[in-house]
């Protein structure tokens, strides 16, 4: 179902004259890692090290890991360029080729009462946008493809953590061709209905119920954190996961007459935080989806920088609902 662009991969490795490569693959594609590594070594003079670490997104490029292993380049599957990197990186997007016509027909039931539909996909489906747009327009729907903004590499691309392209879009509903992770991110970022068409799991889902569940969790997390006497600020070590200034938040915590502790982490887990027993709540400045999506995995409240702004009174909860959590 996915294309691995082997010829392009080999050509770019040869052009860049890479001698040792770190191969990063998302969990869903990692089973192909051994095959891709062997292909590279058979077709080039490069040595390949397959990273066993999770790949959470294009923000999670393992530059430090590559350098520590003496690699002179990285191959990353399943993502498009996200930021400027001063290190050789080859992106292979792993486009999804399965026919989704029947799912489109099913999705029309949820879309037909609206006039303007915004259409966006993850990078795996970006090549399908013209056909999907044509299909919906033939159903007399006006289709808007969001222009690329922020970290998006393509028009119509949805990312996992940043939704600038969707903020001021003039549409009645948003159709996301991707998975729950991407669709929930859009739903938490805009005050519009969001429908997910998931080609892999072959399902059509309104994100409203899941969004409302998360909103209740976030409200409880903010109010619980308000009672904490000591707040930890978690500074992400990954170069693509920087959301907020720890200096600014540190000063605001002091104004609230609470103690503040600065903490650095590459992977934020409850097992790590549970040992910091005296800290009642955390503000994490790495990936905001950790706090929003994984709240049930943590014993103590974990807030994003925007949610902390509600706690300290800089913005109202209603503003967060209107302008988005991401």
Overview features:
about 325 residues, alpha/beta, Rossmann fold, 3 domains, 5-stranded mixed β-sheet, 4-stranded parallel β-sheet, about 20% strand
Tell me what you see in this structure.
This protein has 326 residues and is an alpha/beta fold. The chain has three domains: 6-92, Rossmann fold (3-Layer(aba) Sandwich); 101-206, Diphthamide synthesis DPH1/DPH2 domain 2 (Rossmann fold, 3-Layer(aba) Sandwich), CATH 3.40.50.11850; 211-323, Rossmann fold (3-Layer(aba) Sandwich). 33% of the residues lie in helices and 19% in strands. It has helices at residues 6-16, 33-43, 63-68, 101-111, 129-137, 180-187, 208-226, 246-255, 270-273, 288-293, 305-311, 317-323; strands spanning 20-24, 47-50, 73-77, 89-92, 116-121, 142-144, 173-177, 194-198, 203-206, 230-236, 259-265, 281-284, 302-303. Helix 6 links the parallel strand 7 and strand 8. Helix 1 packs across helix 2 and helix 7 (208-226) packs across helix 11 (305-311).
């Amino acid at each position: 179902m996915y294309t691995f662009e082997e010829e392009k991969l080999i050509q770019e490795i040869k052009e860049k004259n890479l001698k040792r490569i770190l191969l990063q693959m998302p969990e869903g594609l990692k089973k192909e890692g051994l095959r891709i590594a062997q292909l590279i070594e058979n077709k080039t003079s490069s040595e390949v090290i397959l990273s066993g670490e999770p790949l959470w997104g294009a923000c999670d490029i393992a530059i430090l890991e590559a350098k520590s292993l003496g690699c002179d380049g990285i191959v990353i599957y399943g993502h498009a360029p996200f930021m400027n990197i001063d290190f050789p990186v080859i992106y292979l997007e792993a486009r999804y080729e399965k026919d989704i016509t029947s799912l489109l027909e099913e999705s029309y039931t949820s879309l037909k009462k609206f006039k303007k539909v915004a259409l966006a996909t993850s990078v795996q489906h970006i090549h399908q946008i013209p056909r999907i747009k044509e299909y919906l327009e033939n159903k007399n729907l006006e289709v808007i493809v969001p222009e690329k903004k922020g970290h998006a590499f393509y028009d119509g691309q949805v990312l996992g953590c940043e939704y600038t392209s969707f903020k001021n879009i003039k549409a009645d509903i948003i159709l996301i061709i991707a998975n729950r992770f991407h669709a929930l991110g859009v739903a938490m970022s805009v005050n519009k209905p969001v429908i997910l068409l998931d080609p892999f799991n072959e399902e059509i889902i309104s994100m409203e119920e899941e969004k409302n569940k998360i909103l209740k969790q976030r409200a409880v997390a903010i109010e619980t954190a308000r009672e904490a006497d000591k707040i930890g600020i978690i500074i992400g070590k990954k170069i693509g996961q920087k959301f907020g200034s720890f200096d600014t938040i540190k000063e605001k915590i002091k104004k609230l007459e609470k103690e503040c502790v600065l903490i650095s982490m590459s992977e934020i887990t409850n097992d790590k935080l549970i040992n910091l027993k005296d800290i009642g709540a955390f503000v994490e400045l790495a990936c905001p989806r950790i706090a929003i999506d994984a709240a049930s995995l943590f014993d103590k409240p974990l807030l994003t920088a925007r949610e902390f702004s509600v706690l300290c009174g800089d913005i109202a909860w209603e503003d967060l609902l209107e302008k988005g959590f991401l």
